[in-house]
Backbone:
């Protein structure tokens, strides 16, 4: 096994770590977590895995193979020069976590290096500093964040304000730990954010939605992105339907003032969802979903009552009036 660094999005590093852990568990059963510094986490696993992880990720910006991790104050410029050689290098300092004076001193001694700054351009090596640790790596791979932006809800042929951003939809899919070719269920599919990302990732999906208008719009969106034939769209009430066993579930149950719950109380929707999900999720299968912070205690209780294990949960700030809890639960 080799050592790899994962550079996380700065807006929610905890979620980025959770996504990295989930994706590594999909592709490598024996990965090893070593450490996390600010915005950078270190793992050991088979070499070919990190390409698959970065291809699917939404909260991981970049990944690469680690040459060395060196204490900033013990760093020998000549030793670093030998590691980097004549390669082009990207230098990045995680703001507020490293001594600026020491970094400037080190860079002056490494002045002959060809350095590329910024988010674009080709580079063969990286020199990152976080928490006064120098992470030297090579073969960096990064995500194309603009690809996700091109699929934001407002640019789809059918748009409603309730739609999830592609980055959140993809995150939920990854936390559900579903492999290519397996079946993902979204019982509250809305305008199709999660099925769209699932189809583009090579997964099969079952997308269920109660609102007839949203079902029509979802089909339009799925056709637009060329993934309509990757799964099945069902017009129906997810709390009344039954399914054969599915590999995983990723969803965003309706709870806001702008959603139609057709008279059902929000807490009841979550209770019914988890109760039914326990019947058709495979053993050791994962469910990822969002819930408003104000009902966190009720959702926690429902998870245990329905024979699930709370694997982890994260907090996603949306705006002043809404923080959502991102749940990872597993069938006992």
Residues:
């Amino acid at each position: 096994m080799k050592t790899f660094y994962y550079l996380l999005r700065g807006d929610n590093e905890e979620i980025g770590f959770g996504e990295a852990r989930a994706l590594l568990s999909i592709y490598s059963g024996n990965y090893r977590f070593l450490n996390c510094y600010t915005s950078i986490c270190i793992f050991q696993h088979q070499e070919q895995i990190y390409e698959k992880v970065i291809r699917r990720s939404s909260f991981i910006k970049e990944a690469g193979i680690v040459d060395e991790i060196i204490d900033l104050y013990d760093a020998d410029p000549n030793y670093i020069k030998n590691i980097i050689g004549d390669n082009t290098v990207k230098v990045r300092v995680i703001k507020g976590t490293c001594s600026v004076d020491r970094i400037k001193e080190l860079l002056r001694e490494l002045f002959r290096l060809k350095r590329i700054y910024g988010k674009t351009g080709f580079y063969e090596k990286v020199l990152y500093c976080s928490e006064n640790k120098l992470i030297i790596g090579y073969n960096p791979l990064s995500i194309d964040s603009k690809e996700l932006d091109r699929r934001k809800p407002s640019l789809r042929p059918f748009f409603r304000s309730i739609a999830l951003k592609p980055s959140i939809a993809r995150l939920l899919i990854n936390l559900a730990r579903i492999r290519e070719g397996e079946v993902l269920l979204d019982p509250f599919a809305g305008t199709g954010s999660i099925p769209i990302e699932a189809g583009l990732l090579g997964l099969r999906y079952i997308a269920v939605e109660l609102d007839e208008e949203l079902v029509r719009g979802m089909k339009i969106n799925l056709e637009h992105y060329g993934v309509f034939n990757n799964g099945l769209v069902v017009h129906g009430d997810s709390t009344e339907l039954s399914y054969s066993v599915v590999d995983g579930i990723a969803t965003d149950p309706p709870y806001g003032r702008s959603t139609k719950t057709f008279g059902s109380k929000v807490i009841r929707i979550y209770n019914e969802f988890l109760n039914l999900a326990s019947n058709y999720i495979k053993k050791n299968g994962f469910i990822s979903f969002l819930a408003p912070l104000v009902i966190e205690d009720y959702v926690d209780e429902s998870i245990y009552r329905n024979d699930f294990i709370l694997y982890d949960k994260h907090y996603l700030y949306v705006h002043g009036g809404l923080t959502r809890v991102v749940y990872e639960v597993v069938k006992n």
User: Anything to note?
Assistant: The chain has two domains: 2-143, 146-331. Residues 146-331 form a domain with the Rossmann fold fold (CATH 3.40.50.150). The chain is about 30% helix and 35% strand. The chain has a mean pLDDT of 91.
